[in-house]
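Case study.
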Amino acid sequence: MRMPKLTAFLTATAVFASALTLAARADEVHVLNWKGYGADEPWAIAAFEKATGNKVVNDFFNSEQEMLTKLRTNPGLYDVVMINAAFNDQAMAEKLIQPIDTSKLPNYADISKDKAGSSMLVHDGKVYGVPWVWGLTALAINDKSFDKPPTSIAEMWDPAHKGRVTIRDDAVEAVQFGAIATGQNINDVKDMEAVKAKLTSLMPQIKTFWSSENDWNQMVASNQIDIGTYWSGSADRAKTHFKLPVSLVIPQEGAVAWLDAFSIPVGSKNVAGAEAFINYMIDPKFYVEWVTKVGAPVSANTKAVEALPESSFNRKVMGDPAVAKRIQFQAPITDAQRETYLALWQQLKVDVK
Amino acid sequence: MAVQIAAASRSGLRSALPLLAPAYLWLTVAIFLPLSAMVFFSFMTDLPRSGKPWAFTLENYAAFFSQSLYLTLLVASLRLGLEVTLWCIVIGYPAAYVLAKVLKGRSREAIFLLVILPFWSNGLVRIFSWAMVLREGGILDTALNAVLPFKINIDLMYSYPAVIIGLVHSYVPYMVLTCYLTLQAIDDSLIEAGRSLGASRLQVLKRVIIPLSMPGLVAGAVLIFVPVVGSFMEPRILGGRTGTFYGTVIEDQFVAVFNWPLGAALSFILLAVVLVILAVTSPVLRRAA
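After joint prediction, the assembly is written out as follows.
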């Protein structure tokens, strides 16, 4: 008797709330992405708006879970969403994103075949994600603290850096980092105890946990850290755009690779605008400008990467076959795995108190 | 007679109803409804809108007892609440006394303004400014080294003391305001009478001023203790690797892992614990007040 009433009440509240937020105009393209990650560059938005007449409205998330939450709780609000390929499966299963008609994207043909055909993005022959850029979660160093860049991940455990190390406050990243440090496959961690022991011994080294690019850059700017885990595109941005003494290190033990892709949420009110925006985001012209002005990860569009100078980091180092052999691409993670990782990570954070 | 009084109070209630209605309507919409939705969530396996099947369960509450880490964090948060409240009393009470009894006119207004000034700035801005002050090579470190003849190294950032400093700064105005109100209401002639009857300044403080201002102290302490126990922003930004508290774990459940049911259950356990603490201490506090 009470149950249907409560459900009805909850639904009513939800409908009311979404009615308030759904004031989207048809020629607006609502984009959901990380802050400061290409899609919100003012010059890029200006160029896109001028070329297509669509107006770009940016919204941001701080974690993949927050992105999924925003999609779930605001159906119909967003037209374009940037999803890490490892989460594409989950978003599709929850019916949050729709198949994309790639014939509407002229630049799609130039995307490298292995990325475009990734089983994480293509389900039943339908494309649910357009590969945008890929990069690494590797190490980055404060150039002021090193004469010569380190080559091993073990540098993080060096007592010389005690209290000057940082890692991201993210259970999955922490566990996968621990897997690399203990020589395991990041997508199939067999010896969880070894990972735990390795991370436990890292905790006293840590200054603080970072959660955004800004945290990392500020700590380097005020010379508070020597070394830490970082994303390759962010390290490039810190160096190019913010002129900080930051260098990316791809340790000999390996690094975690991820692929970011654009998707169109179910219920998008401006699919044509979304397609135009995604096509613009994978365009070589946008990419070269992004890399030169701001710093970016590696484009999935082969023509875009070829348009960079031969000596550029994204072409020389990231395109190096020796590096390609060391890196491990992130695969989707089940809810059960995620819970195990989170429990481990929380325990580590409590034990260090 | 009794009937008459009852009737009078009933008609009093009726005439007060239009005055009470806006406040109660607002409380119903803004507090009661979301809170009941959260109670509902806390008994569910998953949110109905996540697209997965869901059922009712007590598991979220059981999780608190099955893992020692939640209890450890709750104890740490309660300790943090006590310490912050204590420091707020130590700093806020004398300030309130000076404002109420020593300063008059313009200077009182000026100091009062300084006390409530933090209220006018955004909490996040305040915390980030503390980050600039407390870190190595920050404002405090540089200033002290410029003045002192010997070299000292001050790096309070990302530590437990940093969390205490940030929280005390945010909450001390509550203590000053509540204590100021009760201290101001103390008749000066009571203090003069005590003094003229031979009580020392300390005795006057202990026997007259503190007992009479106790309601303000208690109100301030409760106003500070309750939000500090659940605080998450200050520990996260200022606490570094030691900044994991009960509040930050709840925040993680909502923001990072989308486990609203567990987050809601943890919140209600916190609410229950705080209510029990207030209920147990209330006879003591009431006697003191």
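Observations recorded in class. Residues 66-288 of chain B form a domain with the MetI-like fold fold (CATH 1.10.3720.10). Residues 2-42 of chain B form the longest helix (41 residues). We will return to this complex in the next lecture.
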